[in-house]
Amino acid sequence: MTWVAVGCLTLDGVLLGLAGYWGRRSGLVLGGLICLVLALGTVYLWRRHQRTLDELRRARREVADEARALRELVRRPPSV
Known about the structure:
- The chain has helices spanning 2-22, 26-75.
- The chain is an all-alpha fold.
- It is rod-shaped and about 90 Å long.
- The protein has two helices and no strands.
């Protein structure tokens, strides 16, 4: 879904920029530039989101490993 949004924003930006350039209308060129900046921002934020999800997955694995180790420690009979 993210890539569809980026593709649409990029296409809109390029087409608006070209229409503004050919029609000598600076407002359309500005709109095209804004769309391109938004497309880049979307990619940046999506990558940041993916990194955060990876960190959460790693932290969950670490917590699960610690819980497993504690469970084994509790279940082990006391050595006297």
